[in-house]
Amino acid sequence: xxxxxxxxxxxFLLKTEPSEWSWEDQAANxxxxxxxxxKNKQAQKxxxxxxxxxxxxxxxSGPKARRVMGVVSVVxxxxxxxxxxxxxxxxxxxxxxxxxxxxxKADPHLKDFTLFRQPRLSVVPxxxxxxxxxxxxxxxxxxxALD
Length: 147
Hints:
Layout: E1 11-16, H1 23-28, E2 32-35, H2 41-48, E3 55-60, E4 67-81, E5 84-100, H3 101-106, H4 114-117, E6 123-126, H5 128-137
Parallel strand pairs: 1-3
Antiparallel strand pairs: 1-6, 2-5, 3-4, 4-5
């Protein structure tokens, strides 16, 4: 199911603890994984709103490394799974340089980023402006138009 002409891809940030599921796990898993375990109702709403080919930053949370590591795309939309649901995502490419949370917070162009206002949310929608700014901070990602 392709996007209708004029319909934009949506963009999100997906947070994971690297000890639970890391970028290395994602890449080593054939690049495809089920994104599940989201309990927060607001975060589930965002997962449910995802469409095929939407793009997501893969973000390591936790005490040691809070940073954007790479980009994944949605390859299967929301489906029921256990007590909740999931989407399937596929690795697109690693950031050319990981983008640390401190670096994002220091950028005045990102002052309205939802991640800063709702830091416990595990799925965060992104505007194209925020997406482009974070991409630029990391020098883009492997698989983007810069390759």
